[in-house]
Amino acid sequence: MSTILTVENLRLYYRTRRGIVKAVNNVSFQLERGKTLAVVGESGCGKSSLAYALIRILPRNVHEYSGVIRIDGVDVLKLSEEEFRKNYRMKKISIVPQGAMNSLNPVLKVGDQLAEPLLVHLDIDKDEALRRAAEVLENVRLPKALLERYPHELSGGMKQRVLIAMALIMKPEIVILDEPTSALDIITQANIINFLKDLQSEYNLSYIFITHDLGVASELSDYFAVMYAGKIAEMGPAEDVLTNPMHPYTEKLLKTTPRLRSESMLEFIPGSPPDLIEQIPGCSFNPRCPYAFEKCRIKEPHMIRISSQHYAACWLRGDEK
Amino acid sequence: MSTAPTGLKNILREVLQTKSGKIAIIILSVILAMSLTVWITGSEEVVKNWNEPEYWIDNPRLAAPEWVSWVTGSNAPRSIILKPEDFRKTYSEDPLTGQATIQLRTRFYYDYNDVPSEIILKLNVNATTRSLITLSWTKPDGSKLEAYRKDVSRGAYLIFLYTDADAVSSIKSYLSGINASPDIAIQTVLFSSEASLKSGEPKILRSSDVNPPRPYEVIISVTSRKEGLSASAQLDLLGKVYGIAGTDNKRRDIFIGILWGAPVALAFGLTAALIISFVQTILGALAAFYGYRIDEVVERLTDVYLVLPFLSLLITIQFIYKTTIWTILITVIALSIFGTITKSTRSMVLQIKEEPYIEAAISYGASKARILFLYILPRVLPYTFANVTVLVPSYIFLEASLSLLGVGDPVLPTWGKLIEEAFIGGATFYGYWWWILIPSSLIILVSMAFALLWYSFDKILNPRLREE
Amino acid sequence: MLPVKYLAKRALILGVTVVIATYLTVVIANAGGLVDQILTSQIRFEITQSLSRDPAFSRLPEDLREKMLEERITNAIKAKGLDQPFIIRSFIYLVDALTLRLGKALVLKSNAGSREVADIILERLPNTIALFTTATIIYSIIGIIIGLYMTRKPGGFFDRFMAMVAVITGVIPPWFFAIIFLLIFAFYVRLFPLGGFVSVPAPSDPLLFVLDVLYHMALPLITWTIALFPYWAYVVRNIVIQTYGEDFVTIAKAKGLSDDKILRRYVLRPSMPPIITNVALSLVFSLQGALITEVVFNWPGIGYLLNLAILSTDAPIVIGITVITAYLLVITVFILEILYSILDPRIRVAR
Percent helix, strand and coil across chain B, each rounded to 5? Predict the structure, then answer.
């Protein structure tokens, strides 16, 4: 299995009136072709920032954006904006955004918006582009008639599927999904997860699935990364991480998920997630960690190897990498 | 993600902390202080007299502000008012003829570089028969002339020396007597050296031009039968500059007009802005909150109101009924019950209504009215206040525009009235700039203060639009 | 293409507005019996005039003449319905006003000599429209350009500076600027004429005439533009920035569209509907301010006519102008509604 995406020490900091927000703070991971990496964490941990950092869509007030993003061997961070736009966005890597309410241009027809990237990146005529748009609509189980409609005429679920279709229309290799199902009801959610699975096997797509919903994440993912305060706390194969969490945060997170038939009390994590401006000395989780000890408050832990693919950034797990 | 502070008090505090907010408050406090001064020091008299020419007779017409002469270094003349108490009275009798003469003497030093704009003599004569009045004028260089001679009956007289026929003839005979051109203005004649008058190029004679400096002397003689004879006089040498803001064509002190206009402008603007903003806010909130019928009605009414020819209607009403400023206020409010604030409040409340804590309140049994007033309105109030700040100047200008068209309050000296009179009096065309610019500057200052206040409000309430 | 149902509904509401505005005017004008007075005295005048020209009439004895006169007048009054109760009269006046049968002016005359109020007003109307429309187009375009420029560096110096300028000029009405500008240009720098439509005497050459008119239009246009474009730029800037922050713009970037394309299709086009709404609102306000500016510049349009009518206490014209203004506003707003419905598909397709 080959690695399609490598991220090393990715940083995205941006400026606000109150200080510098370190939304993505030295994140590193790898993604293999055809696999799904789920990135989970609480709201405000930097997941969405990570999503857009990967596709080089930065806020206006960016302070620092550095690191390595290697797609198919090429460090795309070193490319010019124009190059990246022409050759990578939509073609190699695309994104399905969160919150379908406003993600479609209200004054353009759905068909036009779907066909747009085709017309921009490929040398085909409008009819051909619309034909392909109809095709991809079919793939997401939507009727061709939607091409003529305006976004406000669609339901939330339909809009979300249009966005998925849009992300797929150029047949990219990596698809980032930023909370694609949070706004939907459970049934639609299940349907969409199923599409995504089908599409993945059919086209050998690699997904980066960002969510705060552990249940949804566990269904779809091969790999699991847990984010906390802009950094990755734990990362590994989904099975391993879910059954044998090595980071206290992961452990607590799993315990907060209600089970359908469980007698035990619902747990919660005391305290609240840190704001990404104030940097907590040592391990970011230490104020809320029940196992924190002296070293945690002083030195920030690096990723410590648990097994061949399982890492956790916690001093409990030793000293070596 | 920066969040806007909530709660009216917090927002007001934040606004006052911004630079523009502070400047605004300073300006407004000054204006407010001005207004209070006027109210306290008995302004009723001013208003009553604003339209009485007699009250202002001791001021020069169309005089520039005094500080102009400092700024340009021109040493323009200020008014010298010689009141009755400034005159020394001497009384003499002629036992043979039974006539008596009252002599009123006064003197003044004159060191300005220009002659007075007008010379006015006020005379009060009490006698049983006719009296002979003469005015003798002595300049610092010792030359003397008779400026006025007339036979009058008893009464009070107001004599404009530069147009009065008797004065003119006296001066003319003096001029021909010294072989000077007869077409020189009286003020110039009285204040120029005799030599320069003869030469045809009148040059002003100042008290300090003589060594040692000597004053001008004026002697007014009243001669009549001695029974019951009494007289008093006042001599106004009106300058070419006056006061802080100059005078208008009716001799009125523009500064007093401005002072009086301040509380009116503020009261009108604030009242209109406050009432209209609040009424529209509440109506918009009610429409959004109660929905259905009420919403429909409010929306339709708002649509109609928005396209009404507001100003034209107002003008028509004023033209036909010529009401006072407070009735104008009521009419303005009546014509503005629905408007843009209704619409924006409505959309805001529609959003707030959907929030979970409202649902929660409903479920615990809170009455609709309670929810509206305790939960929803406080969220909306800061925006209402922002609207008030931007509306106050609009209404001040509205009053001014009515005045400009001649359909404002017919009596009160509002700022709009001042500008209208200036405009009609040709201030723009003849360069009486102070007449129009000083009231204008004040209106602009007040508007700027509110605009700055609004700028701060906007910055705080809409941080997203400002983020760098 | 056009959402007929929606537009019909809007037209209805706008129509109702005109009716209400006119009715209000009529009722207010007549609350003191003013309109009745004007009309009856007009009738009296006309009948007296026509009868006095009849030679047969003047040969009749005095008391017979009186009787006949009064009879004729009373009949005429009845025929017009002027002896009816107030409600009915007000409706008669309403219908008259709506159809622009605005009666005769008391004092003023149109250039062609007509006394009809409608003629007098409609004669001056084109002047107002010419000046006002030109000014609006100019300041809108400049405002949009500057507003867009402000969005390049939000929070930057130019942006903050223009925003401050916008806020300050926003509260000051254009006619106020006009007075100040007149002072500067009339008294100090004699660059422009002091108002009016053409020089006196007017040039006979048509080309020179047009140039002369433009020369007279220059200062009003400049004043108007300076007074209004900053705030407009600010409004455009806010709308565009708000659109820019919308999710679909981020998605457009993610789709690999060029900045240029994004600007046009994803920022400007969706901004058009709110911009049009703002245009409509500002037009309503500025038209009314235009009336006063005309007075300041002596520009012979409706505003100037209004001032003249007020000074001459010519009530029918004042009332007539209010009605015509109501029509103007409604027509302008309706045109904008049509434009809006073309640009915003959310209106076009019925839900």
Answer: 55, 15, 30
Q: Which residues of chain A are modeled with pLDDT < 70? A: 1, 100, 258-266, 319-321
* C-alpha span between B210 and B111 (Å, rounded): 11
**Whole-angstrom distance, CA of residue B283 vs CA of residue B297:** 11
Please identify among residues 401-460 of chain B the ones whose CB lies closer than 8 Å to any CB of chain C: 401, 404-407, 419, 423, 427-431, 433, 436-437, 440, 443-444, 447-448, 450-452, 454-455, 458
CA C73/CA B312 separation, integer angstroms: 33
Burial of B195 (0-12, 13-18, 19+ CB in 10 A): middle
Nearest CA in chain C to A149: C349
pLDDT tens digits, one per residue of B301-312? 998 898 888 888
The Cα of B222 is separated from the nearest Cα of chain C by a number of Å equal to 48
What pLDDT digit, counting tens, does each position of B334-359 carry? 999 999 999 989 988 888 888 888 87
Please enumerate, as own/partner, the contacts of B5-9 that have beta carbons within 8 Å and a separation of 24 or more: B5/B460, B6/B378, B6/B379, B6/B382, B7/B378, B7/B382, B8/B378, B8/B381, B8/B382, B8/B385
Residues of C in contact with A101 (CB under 8 A): 247
DSSP H helices in C82-151 = 86-98, 117-150
Residue C104 CA to residue A43 CA, distance in Å, equals: 73
* Amino acid found at C257: L
| C-beta atoms surrounding C325 within 10 Å | 28
b/e per residue, B196-207, with b = 16+ CB within 10 A? ebeeeebebbbb
- For helices B325-334 and B254-290, angle between their N-to-C axes, nearest 10 degrees: 20
Measured from the Cβ of residue C172, the count of other Cβ atoms closer than 10 Å reads 21
8 Å CB contact between B239 and B79: yes
Q: Which residues contact C325 (CB under 8 A, 6 or more apart)?
A: B309, B312, C287, C288, C291, C302
Interatomic CA distance for residues C283 and A195, integer angstroms: 52
**Residue C307 in contact with partner chain B when CB distance is under 8 A:** yes
The rounded distance, in Å, linking the Cα atoms of B145 and B161 is: 14
- For residue A3, the cross-strand partners are A32
Q: Could you give the C-alpha distances from A7 to A220, B230, C76, in angstroms and in order?
A: 21, 111, 96
How many CB atoms within 10 Å of residue A241? 28
Q: Check pLDDT > 90 for residue B178.
A: no
Contact between chains at C254 and A152 (C-beta distance less than 8 A): no
- B20 or B466, greater pLDDT: B20
DSSP 3-state of C7: helix
Q: Kindly give the residue spans of alpha helices, DSSP state H, lying in A211-320.
A: 214-220, 238-243, 248-255, 294-298
Helix (H) or strand (E) holding C234: helix C206-244
Q: Residue A115: helix, strand or coil by DSSP? A: helix
Contact A111, A128 (CB under 8 A): no
Residue C254 has its nearest CB partner, among A60, A94, A106, at A94
- CA neighbor of A119 nearest in space, from A130, A108, A134: A130
Question: Cα dihedral angle (B427, B428, B430, B432), rounded to 10 degrees?
Answer: 50
Contacts of A60 in chain B (CB under 8 A): 467
Nearest to C154 among B304, B440, B468 (CB): B468
DSSP E strands in chain A: the ranges are 3-16, 19-32, 36-40, 62-71, 74-75, 93-96, 174-178, 206-211, 223-228, 231-237, 304-305, 311-312
Q: What is the DSSP letter of A89?
A: B
pLDDT interval class at C4 (50, 70, 90): confident
pLDDT bracket for residue C25 (50, 70, 90): confident
DSSP string, C162-179: HHHHHHHHHHS-HHHHHH
Residue located via tokens 């002469």: B69
Q: Does B4 touch chain C (CB under 8 A)?
A: no
pLDDT surpasses 70 at C348: no
